[in-house]
Amino acid sequence: MSFNLAVLNEQIQKESVFLESIQAELRKVLIGQEKMVQRLLIGLLAEGHILLEGVPGLAKTLAVKSLAQAIHTTFHRIQFTPDLLPSDLIGTLIYNQKESSFDVKKGPIFANIILADEINRSPAKVQAALLEAMQEKQVTIGDKTYFLEEPFLVLATQNPIEQEGTYPLPEAQVDRFMLKVKVDYPSQDEEMSMLTLMTSNVLPEKISPVVKPKQIMDARNIVRSIYVDEKIHKYVTDIVFATRYPEKYNIESISGLIDVGASPRASLNLVRAAKAHAFIQHRGYVTPEDIREVGMDVLRHRILLSFEAEAEDVTVEDIIQTVFDTIPVP
C-alpha cells in the first residue's frame, strides 16, 4: 500500500496543477471568498451539485460565472422566477408544419455548468424537472429521454432572508446537493481591495479558459482512487449516526433537538467531498481533518431541527459542532 500511495501522491501532484490555473483566473475578478471558491472546486471534482446561500452582493453569481469561463465548456444561467415553467428549463416539442412532425427544442439545462439563480423562487413542477436532471443526469421531453453531457454540474444560489415570492425547496431536492455553503461578508481589507479593483479606471482582466473538460474528467477518476482508511469510514458513520441516535453516543444534550438525522447520502458525500479536498491539498489519502473541513457544508441541509431547538434558538451548526466535538477523532 505504501508504494501505491507514493505513486498516487506523485500522480496527484501532477494532475492537480490545473487547479492553480483556475484559481489564478478567478482571482482576476474575485477578492477573498476563498472558501466559496474551494467548495466550487470540490463540487467540480466530486461530481456534486452545490447550493450557495447568502444575502445579495456577495459575488455568488460572479464566482459561478467566472468558474465556467475558466473552463472550455458550455454554461447557462437560469433566473428562477415564480412564473417559470418546466419547458423553460428543459425544453419542449414544437410542431413543424412543413414536416408534419414535432421537433425538439432543447432548453438551457443542456449545458455542462448550470447556474440556477435564486432557485427557491420557482414552484414544484420546475423543481421536479430540475431534480431529474440533477439526480439522473437526464431530461424527459415528450416520450423521449435525453442524457446530459458530462461534466454536468448545478450550482444554485438562494437568498436566506427574503421570503416573499419564494418556495421552500423539497427535502428530496435539498438532499441532492452535495454541499450547502453559507457565503459570508468579506473582511474590511478584502472589501477595500474590491473597491480598488472595481472602481478604478482600469478594467479588471478578462477570464480566459485554461482547462478542458477532459482534464476535469481525468481528475475525477483520480479523486475516486484516493485512499480512505477503514478508520475514516468508521469516523464518518459515527458522525452521521450520532445525528440520528445521539443518545447512543452520549450526546443527550441534543437528543430532543433533532427531528430527522442525516441521510445515508450524507455518509457518501462526506467521503466524496473529503477525497476532493485531499486532492486540492495534493494528497492521495483522506485524513480526519478533511472530514471535519467539509463536514459542516455536507450536513447542514440534511438535519431537520425540532420545534424545541427553534424555541431554544439552537442552530443546525450548533448541533453539528457538538457532534464533531464529541465523536473521537481516529
Describe it for me?
With 330 residues, this protein is an alpha/beta fold. Helices cover 46% and strands 16% of the residues. The chain has two domains: 16-217, P-loop containing nucleotide triphosphate hydrolases (Rossmann fold); 227-326, Magnesium chelatase subunit I, C-Terminal domain (Helicase, Ruva Protein, domain 3, Orthogonal Bundle), CATH 1.10.8.80. The chain has helices at 2-15, 17-26, 34-46, 60-69, 86-90, 124-136, 171-174, 188-199, 213-224, 230-244, 264-280, 288-299, 307-311, 316-326, and strands at residues 49-53, 75-79, 91-96, 101-106, 113-117, 138-141, 144-147, 153-158, 177-182, 258-260, 304-305. Helix 1 (2-15) packs antiparallel against helix 9 (213-224), helix 3 packs across helix 11 (264-280) and helix 11 packs across helix 12.
Task: Summarize the entry for a quick read.
With 330 residues, this protein is α/β, with parallel strands linked by helices.
Question: Main traits of this protein?
Answer:
single chain; about 325 residues; alpha/beta; Rossmann fold; Helicase, Ruva Protein, domain 3; 2 domains; 5-stranded parallel beta sheet
Count the strands?
11
By helix and strand content, what is the structural category?
A: alpha/beta
Total of domains: 2
Strand arrangement, major sheet: 2-5-8-1-9
Please bin the fraction of helical residues.
Answer: 40-55%
Find the CATH superfamily of the largest domain: P-loop containing nucleotide triphosphate hydrolases
Residue runs with pLDDT of under 50 for 5 or more positions: none
Return the string of H and E elements.
HHHEHEHEEEHEEEHEHHHEHHEHH
CATH architecture of the largest domain: 3-Layer(aba) Sandwich
Looking at how many chains there are and whether they match, the oligomeric state comes to single chain
